[in-house]
Records
---
Amino acid sequence: MTESLGRLARSPQGLLGLVLVSLALLAVCFGPWLAPHSPEGLAPLARYRSPGPEFWLGTDQYGRDILSRLLYGARTTIVMAVLATALGTVIGAVLGTASAFLGGRADEAIMRTVDAVMSIPGLLLALLIVNLLGKSSLNALLAVGIAFAPGMARVTRSVALTVRKQDYVGAAVARGESGAYIVLREMLPNVVAPIVVEMTIRVAFAVMLFATLSFLGLGAQPPAPEWGLMVAEARGFMHRNPWMLIWPSAAIALVAIGFNLLGDGLRDILNPRV
């Protein structure tokens, strides 16, 4: 573990991604304690303030402190994105591994179904699911997770096909172990490395997708301090205070870039050919 972290730190993109993700996790864990003001505290006399000593990142149309809302919103945006990615990863990993193990017509049927779902753009699929389930953060989480599952299934199957040919899988079959046991206990643990890399990269897309759903009014609902919702609310007032739009947009971009760079770094250190 220490050696892997050292190799990750020696990689420029890995080090930068690690720093950005660490800062994001710091905001997630300690944001409410670091916030100087209440995220929903109204101050009509302090509306549209530019960054200054009292309000470091300025205030919005209701006089709410933008920095405090960003720190509180980190939990909503980042945690929801990570949970949605984890949900899609679990579903896709189990489905892809099972497909590789079963082979034949079952594999063909599962993969053609996955291909059909993958033909629908992720954002459009998420929008359809949220419209069916209703507007809420939980439904947006489910929508993003389901939208990511087919891609994870395809990635996992490509790795699991190689694992399927290994001797320990053949030994488990010869012992008469059940298909569920072989998939969950023998094959799935041996395809974890590429899944972790893919999951880390997909968190970046989940952050943007979750923020997009909130921006469209289908995710978090006012007055929640969610970054995408903050961008949506700032559109009508950006001529009065452009910082209202700049800061949450920059937060979304930096977190997405951080997870992308971290995923690239993990891919490099986990690549057995390096």
---
Amino acid sequence: MATSEQRVALVTGAARGIGAAVARRLASDGAAVGVLDLEESNCGATVDAITSAGGQALALGADVSNADQITAAVDRLAKEFGSVDILVNNAGVTRDNLLFKMTEQDWDTVIAVHLKGAFLTTKAAQKHMVARKYGKIVSLSSISALGNRGQANYSAVKAGLQGFTRTLAIELGPFGINVNAVAPGFIVTDMTDDTARRVGVTPEQLQQAAAEATPVRRVGYPEDIANAIAFLTSDESSFITGQVLYVDGGRKMAS
């Protein structure tokens, strides 16, 4: 992160997986990081990893789909570290099923966490960025935005986040705010391990199948996504906005 001024980042869903890797990477690049998850107590491992390496981190608990909770968390971070310069909308859940089996609650839960959550968190954070005429916002989309069997809800929100990103790039660009999205392919996380067990295979079997379908012949890891986000939230990316970067080992190209 090429700046002499410390930036302050907020990463949602940062207790584990991609969010934790992003929080650690941004901290290693010099940012003070708000580590946000549904329960503040869940953030301990990520915060400890950052502080033990000499970084600064603050654990925050909030339901991203609750306006009062997320506004309070964002304002607390700004009060603690002086600003909110970077936002990574990573919080997410899955409720996979074929459409005829998918419940209304399955649909509403995924919509609330991904889309409403990104809306509320971005709305709360952008006021601090607009005031400073500086900001970097990255939302996590997915290769599933292109369509994926059994994920009508998840595919819809991940496609929606791409439209959300492009619109905010237009609206917030005049205030010095860059808005982009990263769309991961298959990433090894607890979530993909759970998917494997749900479909009746081992995580290793699912990973092998994913690697064979990927041009670079490997699966992705949370650090692969963190590397991309580190660039998009750096000052080196100041002329990049409204873009969706697929970090998928070439899977989109090969599909």
